[in-house]
Amino acid sequence: MKSVYSVVPGPKHKFPDHPESPERLDLLNLAAIDGLEKATCSPAKIDDIARVHTNRMIEQLEMDCRQGPAIIDHAPTYVTRESYQIALDAAGACLDVTRAVLRRDARNAFAIVRPPGHHAEPDRPMGFCLFNNAAIAALDAVAMGVERVMVVDYDAHHGNGTQKAFWNNPRAGYFSTHQENIYPGSGWMEEAPQARGRIANFPLPAYSGDASFNIIFEQALTPLLHAFKPGLIVVSAGFDAHWRDPLTSLGLSTHGYHSISKKLVELAGELCQGQIVFVLEGGYDPHNVANGVHAVFHAMTGSEPTNVQDASGHAEPDISKRVQAFRKWHGL
Ligand SMILES: [Zn+2]
User: Fold this and answer.
1) Contact assessment for residue 270 and residue 317, using Cβ atoms and an 8 Å cutoff
2) From the candidates 119, 242, 298, 330, which is the catalytic residue?
3) Which of 39, 197, 276, 300 has its CA 20 to 30 A from that of 81?
């Protein structure tokens, strides 16, 4: 079975001097990797979007775009006249590849889309995000009969929108690593006491990098996933946790991205017949996005990654006490 990817580059969703720009994807090299195929996709339908977002929010966004270009929040999040259609295309590109994985037409998948999604809340766009692509794909899978879905979010920012969409849904889990004390300000370890073992936040000090992420994925995420037992893993794949990202201060390298993505593919193999879908979130240096996408492709296909040497020079903070606190909080 082939691994698949979909691409929505959204060239007309752009705003002067904004970091969430089409140029983010300029260095992507989608030339053939063995075992990888491009999928064709169609736009999401309103009913699909409405699994996460209110009708009022959807209508308001459509109206804001029709009157665009405009800034619609303080992040700042922008829209253009084409953004509504591009956001439907992006959500559709996530839905279609997820459905292909669930039908066993694809081994696993990566939706490389803009705009990103994980800050978009049920009732408002937010943080460069219009529709919450990963949450929409995850709740669609639940509607298709998957018992439980887990979104794993390794973007440098907390996915407040995904957390909010899943807040009271026992079939939808959320695990996030993110830099503490940066946008959007949520994602504290003890933030969701009603959902221990299901909504799990691991805030990180600046410069946490490859070693910290490997420890967290082994000692915090692995037992959490084994206890939650998802039938599908959706990954909010943000490449702004790379040490060279202009907006944040985490410390992953391309090698680190490959390592955690490979771990997720292995966990999907153990727990959900290999069913895993990666969805692009942030990442504001085109080199990091291109290298990160390739690292994920190699993890998906089980091939050897190109040896990109870009390790962070920073010493990493000690996160062992946080790992213990995380396990205790979630009863692992
Ligand atoms: Zn981010």
Assistant:
1) no
2) 119
3) 39
Report the pLDDT value the prediction gives residue 124, as an integer from 0 to 100. 98
Tokens of 198: 């299901």
The predicted model scores a pTM of 0.98
Q: Using one digit for the tens of pLDDT, what is the confidence trace for 25-73?
A: 999 988 778 889 999 999 999 999 999 999 999 999 999 999 999 999 9
Residue with tokens 């590849």: 97
Q: Tell me the fold of 3-329.
A: Arginase; Chain A (3.40.800)
Strand pairing report for 36-38 and 199-204: unpaired
Report which of 156, 157, 150 is spatially closest to residue 174, judged by C-alpha positions. Answer: 150
Query: pLDDT, tens digit, for every residue of 233-276?
Result: 999 999 999 999 999 999 999 999 999 999 999 999 999 999 99
CA of 268 to the centre of ligand 1 (A): 24
> Where does the chain have alpha helices with state H?
46-49, 55-66, 83-102, 133-143, 160-166, 210-216, 222-228, 254-271, 286-301, 320-329
Q: Which of 232, 226, 235, 260 is nearest to 331 (CA)?
A: 226
Please list all protein residues whose beta carbon sits less than 5 angstroms from ligand 1, which is an ion: 155-157, 238, 240, 282
Residues present in the chain in total: 332
Residue with tokens 């084994």: 226
- Residue 42 in tokens: 């169609």
CA of 157 to the centre of ligand 1 (A): 4
Q: Which residues pair with 150 in a beta bridge?
A: 173, 233
Edge-to-edge strand order for the sheet containing 36-38? 36-38, 3-8, 109-113, 276-280, 232-237, 149-153, 172-179, 199-204
Residue 119 falls in the annotated catalytic set:
yes
Query: What's the gap in Å between 130 CA and the centre of ligand 1?
Result: 14
Give me the helix-helix angle, 83-102 and 133-143, nearest 10°. Answer: 40
Cα–Cα distances (Å) from 215 to 62, 121, 220, 222, 263, in that order, read 43, 30, 8, 10, 11
